[in-house]
């Protein structure tokens, strides 16, 4: 790959953005930094403001207040076509009457991209693995291939920032996973500053350098995928990213007693009577009869999921879901008595509502 990206050398700073539609605050004092060459994924439930944030950065949406700085330049008042960004949408948005090469060439023409355009088109098609498809028309390609063309077209104009708006949502599961991994590879190879909007948590965790979780127009937490998953700062984030058990407990601040055991707590945990959020993989089960009542459970259902198994266990006052290795779960059957063991992994405790 010889093309050098124009990637935002000083990154992107979104500062205190607010955008109100009637009674809805789509962005509510929303701030986010994207470092040069970084891929940040914005994740959150439908209507939380992800697309509005991306559109505000692109210039397709005005903001009521706040500022947008790209590569050191305040672009808040600049129209979209002067912001040096390129976007890939859920719907591939290719021109149907143009070939694959024609689509990319046309984008370069519109953006007045300097240099040998034939070479630029060829390089970018190569980059997305479609070097042999230049003369095809969009309708002759699969959805995944069309989206690769859209990606090549976006990169060919050498934008400072690449914006990906649910780019994988229209694809079926297998293609989605392949293209997700490809996007990551290509983004790293080109080193382009990227904002990726998705509602799919697995997609966000796999593809991003950092994941930002939004709710009601606000950024609730941002961090590396492993941090967001293991050290959520609110119950909302813990709940939104991955599965979590909610168990009644008694917190002394840095540890809590839950199911007759003591678990360490994450910073920011509540004290007193609390709900402790524990991931299924942080629970193990040991076949046992006659264990202490507060840690005794009875298997309700075991579910085989290929690489692991989930086991639902009735415990005093409710149930827990444990994630076990396939071997560990194979000896368990509905009705079995088990000891529920909480691993020594920090958990978040929130005030019981
Ligand atoms: P989804 O995952 O469903 O696309 P999202 O997180 O991307 O959701 P946005 O599309 O940013 O959310 O919308 C945030 C809120 O702003 C929603 O309540 C939405 O209805 C509202 N909204 C967005 N654009 C407009 C508009 N042009 N006019 C009125 N309301 C809007």
UniProtKB/TrEMBL annotation:
Residues 12-241 form the ABC transporter domain. Keywords: ATP-binding, Nucleotide-binding, Transport. Its EC number is 7.6.2.9. PROSITE patterns: ABC_TRANSPORTER_1, ABC_TRANSPORTER_2. Coiled coil: none annotated. GO terms for cellular component: ATP-binding cassette (ABC) transporter complex. The lineage of its organism: Bacteria, Bacillati, Actinomycetota, Actinomycetes, Propionibacteriales. This is ABC-type quaternary amine transporter.
């Amino acid at each position: 790959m010889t093309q050098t990206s124009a990637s935002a050398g000083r990154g992107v700073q979104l500062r205190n953005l607010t955008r109100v539609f009637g009674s809805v605050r789509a962005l509510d004092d929303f701030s986010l930094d994207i470092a040069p060459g970084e891929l940040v994924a914005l994740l959150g439930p439908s209507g939380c403001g992800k697309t509005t944030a991306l559109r505000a950065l692109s210039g397709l949406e005005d903001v009521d207040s706040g500022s947008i700085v790209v590569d050191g330049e305040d672009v808040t008042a600049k129209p979209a076509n002067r912001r040096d960004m390129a976007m890939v949408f859920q719907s591939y948005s290719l021109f149907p009457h143009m070939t694959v090469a024609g689509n990319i060439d046309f984008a370069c023409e519109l953006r007045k991209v300097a240099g040998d355009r034939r070479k630029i088109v060829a390089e970018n098609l190569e980059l997305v693995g479609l070097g042999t498809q230049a003369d095809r028309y969009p309708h002759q390609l699969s959805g995944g291939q069309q989206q690769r063309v859209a990606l090549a077209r976006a990169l060919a104009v050498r934008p400072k920032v690449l914006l990906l708006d649910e780019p994988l949502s229209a694809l079926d599961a297998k293609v989605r996973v392949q293209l997700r991994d490809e996007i990551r590879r290509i983004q790293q190879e080109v080193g382009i500053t990227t904002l990726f909007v998705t509602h799919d948590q697995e997609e966000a965790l796999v593809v991003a350098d950092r994941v930002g979780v939004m709710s009601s127009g606000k950024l609730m937490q941002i961090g590396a995928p492993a941090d967001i998953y293991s050290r959520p700062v609110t119950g909302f984030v813990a709940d939104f990213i991955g599965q979590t058990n909610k168990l009644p407990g008694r917190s002394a601040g840095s540890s809590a007693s839950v199911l007759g055991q003591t678990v360490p707590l994450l910073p920011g945990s509540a004290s007193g009577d609390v709900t402790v959020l524990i991931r299924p993989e942080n629970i193990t089960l040991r076949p046992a009869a006659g264990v202490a009542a507060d840690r005794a459970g009875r298997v309700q259902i075991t579910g085989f999921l290929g690489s692991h198994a989930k086991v639902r266990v009735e415990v005093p006052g409710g149930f827990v879901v444990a994630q076990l290795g396939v071997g560990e779960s194979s000896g368990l059957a509905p009705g079995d008595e088990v000891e529920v063991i909480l691993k020594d992994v920090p958990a978040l405790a929130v005030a019981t509502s």
